Amino acid sequence: MDLIIRRATLAPGAAPQHKHTVDIGIEAGRIVAVEPNLAASAAEEIDAAGSLVTPPFVDPHFHMDATLSYGLPRVNASGTLLEGIALWGELKPDLTQEALIERALQYCDWAVARGLLAIRSHVDVCDPRLLAVEALVEVKRRVAPYLDLQLVAFPQDGVLRSAGAFENLKRAIAMGVDVVGGIPHFERTMADGAQSVRLLCEFAAEQGLRVDMHCDESDDPMSRHIETLAAETHRLGMQGRVTGSHLTSMHSMDNYYVSKLLPLMREAGVAAIANPLINITLQGRSDSYPKRRGMTRVPEMMTAGITVAFGHDCVMDPWYSLGSGDMLEVAHMGLHVAQMTGVDGMRKCFDAVTVNAARILGLEGYGIAPGCAANLVLLDARDPVEAIRLRAARLAVVSRGKVVSRAPAARAALSLEGRPSQVDFKLHRD
Ligand code: FE2
Description:
- There is one protein chain.
- By secondary structure, this protein is of the alpha/beta class.
- The protein folds into 2 domains: 3-55 and 367-413, Urease, subunit C, domain 1; 57-361, Metal-dependent hydrolases (TIM Barrel), CATH 3.20.20.140.
- Helices cover 34% and strands 21% of the residues.
- Strands 1, 2, 3, 4, 5, 14, 15 and 16 form an 8-stranded mixed beta sheet that branches. Strands 6-7-8-9-10-11-12-13 form an 8-stranded parallel beta sheet, sandwiched between helices.
- Strand 8, helix 4 and strand 9 (179-180) form a beta-alpha-beta unit.
- Helix 2 (97-113) packs parallel to helix 3 and helix 6 (225-235) runs parallel beside helix 8.
- The radius of gyration is 22 Å and the shape is globular.
- It starts with a strand and ends in a 7-residue tail after the last strand.
- The site of fe (ii) ion has 5 residues, from loops.
- This is Cytosine deaminase.
- GO terms for molecular function: cytosine deaminase activity; isoguanine deaminase activity; metal ion binding.
- Pfam families: Amidohydro_3.
- Residues 44-404 form the Amidohydrolase domain.
């Protein structure tokens, strides 16, 4: 074999048949064996020593055309969504393809080091030059040997509101963009918003493409485009291929209305993506106290049987000055904002940045089982909850069967009389 990871702990639920640690054998970019005491040898062996091995993190919602542009041409002084959009408008004319590619590649380096090996990125198609589209199609090609980059044609200024946007979107799809995006709540009227959803879903159905719209990213409880998105998905037979991103208006909606909406989404097989870091910072901005959190109804949707994932959305761009590609930080924030502090809830937050996100992207061969792609992460944690709590170090990241990143464990050396010489921030009760 090419690589064996020995004494790995798998996440509960991921492999219930394995009560103890297992060895993972990898050959020609595939997992070929998952069993205790694997009787084989390999060119390279890694001893996990009981630590958690998980399939890679997946970010289902990102903006790679804007990432790492923090401070260009100035910083977002108010930190609001509207100043962010204005700032992006100021930056767009100055974008060059080389700089865009360079920033995106740098972000992908960070992602790999964080064990984040699949990203769905929206790309703005409202600039008729389609410069960002060209750049990200090139980035997708360059990172393909180690990272799955899926692109969404995103009409940031509204597919109906912005002249020529639908034609640009079609051109972007022809250039290799994978998914149809939209932004119904940004169209001029509610009616235009609903019309944009119909137009884009029909186009996607015709082309056999997936759909992922920025949908109802607002505090307005009457912003109900998700209803139209679910109805269109049902009408066009696109179950399992359509996603509503953000859905923040649902936070403020009437409970009775939501009790009808959730089964509608479930019936249509529409998935949901919350972006906890961004929702908590951008929503509720016009509130006095109490201030709404703005994140969509994550645990309620999960209970209703809807696939829910968490996205990073932004890292060091006009909307958000923080972040480093760490999906455990995203899960950590989501867990807090949604008050998912029960054991089951915490585990589901881990699923929201791994298996649920992978399902939304439609990734094939995702998982730790024979036959799966050999993409995995060795974390300095014993289980998913500890991984979230510590934002655990990625001791080793394996992509396509090769170790592509290594990092040291987080340890501190102490110099205290009568106390241990080192701490690792884990509970030791033996
Ligand atoms: Fe977004």
